[in-house]
Structure formats: structure tokens, C-alpha cells
Amino acid sequence: MNQTTNAAVITPEQLLEHWQGHRKLTRKTIEAFPDDKLFTYSIGGMRPFSELVMEFIDMTGPGITGIQSGEWKKFGEDSRPKPATKAALLARWDEVTELLNSTWPNIKPERFQERELAFGQWDGTVYWSVLYFIDNEIHHRGQGFVYLRSLGIEPPPFWNRQ
Amino acid sequence: MNQTTNAAVITPEQLLEHWQGHRKLTRKTIEAFPDDKLFTYSIGGMRPFSELVMEFIDMTGPGITGIQSGEWKKFGEDSRPKPATKAALLARWDEVTELLNSTWPNIKPERFQERELAFGQWDGTVYWSVLYFIDNEIHHRGQGFVYLRSLGIEPPPFWNRQ
């Protein structure tokens, strides 16, 4: 757990770029949905893609604030009404993009190996929480790809993070 | 790109544990499929889950060998016949689990920041390739979760990597 070397597996800057690259792909996935299907379409009783996206937003925005400051709100504790249109959802998305970019440089490098109770309830090392936030987005976005395919819509290419 | 600090974001050991944790979840996802559906079931013209799993196997096995040695085969260049049963697919999976565990300690820590033409065709930093292999598995496994849900089968919990 405590091993460190001068050779970084990944630097904080690279991890931010990796995360924002995935977030660009998610944004393109949101855009690919027809406006109504984004909020209504489902397979196998799963949540519509808009609700999965709200989970990413609720995890990333308050999550990065908690990681930087050590102060956590309860998960999903955003008093604002949920976006009801694609444009409003994308605007909320872009707010989080800015927040992530502006908060990240204020995270001390040693923070990634500290233990933290994320959202006051999930115990883990900070790097683990960051990877969980990213992986959860990849996981559910992959499900959004199936929704798109089953609607006859080509999803954006997975490898393109620009 | 070249910034290193004594505080590691994530150590090589942690990255292996993270990867193998995801691979445990994928193994449970394979097990959750009925034998026939694993090789035949599809939504929206997508590949059956068995073919997605073969992609993970072809990426992880030869991928980790290439990362460690710098010697690459062409992607998918495995002359053995593809597994045709769930048991055979799981056996192939377990081979890769062992290979990953035995190869990983032989990867020099500085290797993660070296540039490499993965599989002779994908140019990138080694950490990027490793994350790509992991993310590709998360992405397509999420699609397998939709297949399971639409079959009325509860997938294994996403957060459980034991």
C-alpha cells in the first residue's frame, strides 16, 4: 500500500485528462440520444440514460469537491430540480466539467493515497474513489450504447476521447 | 507529461489489484449467463457476450505480454480455436488471470510512462494502453449487464470486486 517510486504509473494531470476524455465521450453519447428517448427509453427495467447521467453528475461534482476539501454531502443531495431537457442536462454537464478542471489542481498529490469516507458512507482510498467514479460512468455509458444501438442509432466511437 | 512526485496516485500493485478486481466481476458476469445465451444472445445487432469476452482475453493476455516484453503480436492472433462452451471460456479466462499475475511483477515501474505501439498499431503511453484494456472491459461488460437484465437475470453487483 505504501510503496512509492519515482516512476509514476500515472500523474495527477494524466488522470484528469483521462477522466475528462471519458466525460467528452459521455457528452457525445448524451447528444446522440433523441430528446425524448434520453428521458424515457429503457431496456429490461433499467433507468433511462438521463438518470444514469444524473448519477455521473451527482458523483463527479460533489465527489471532486469532497476529495479536495474532505467535506462531504450525502450522495444526491442537490436541491436544484433535475434537468428536464437535453439542453439543460448538457448545461449541467458542462458546469461539472469546469468544476472538475478548477478543483483538480488544488488536490494535494499525497491525497490520492489517503483514506476517506466518500459521501460520508463509502470507505476507501481516494484513488479508488476516483477510479470508481470513472468506472461507474464507463459502465453505465456502455449501457447507453446498447440503448442507442437498439434504437438504430450509431453511438460515438469508444476510442475517441477528443 | 514528465512530472513525477514521491506521492504515487496509484502504485503498480494497486493497479493490478484494480484490474483483477474488474476481471473477477467480469468472470461472475460470464457465469450469470445461461450457457446458450452466452454465445447467441444479442441486442441491436451487437456481438454476443462470449465474443466481447474473447476480445477482453485477446487484449489482456497478449497485451500484458507485449507491455512487459515490448514484443507484440497482431491483435487477435491466437491460433487456438475459440472456446465453444461456458466452461471452456472460463478456463481460458483463468489462464489469463494467471498470466497477468505472473507477468505484472516483471514490468519495470518506469515502463508505464514509456511510449509503445500496442499490438503494432495503437500508439500511446503504456499506462494509457493498460487503462484502455480495463475500460474496454468495463464498457462491454456493462453491455452484458443489459443483455442479462433483458433476459430477466440479475447481474452481479457492480461494486463487488471480490
UniProtKB/TrEMBL annotation, chains A, B:
GO molecular function: metal ion binding
High-level lineage: Bacteria, Pseudomonadati, Bacteroidota, Chitinophagia, Chitinophagales
Organism per entry: Panacibacter microcysteis
Classification via InterPro entries: DinB, DinB/YfiT-like
Full protein name: DinB family protein
Pfam families in the record: DinB
Residues involved in a divalent metal cation binding: 140
UniProt keyword Transmembrane helix present: no
Keywords (A to Z) from UniProt: Metal-binding
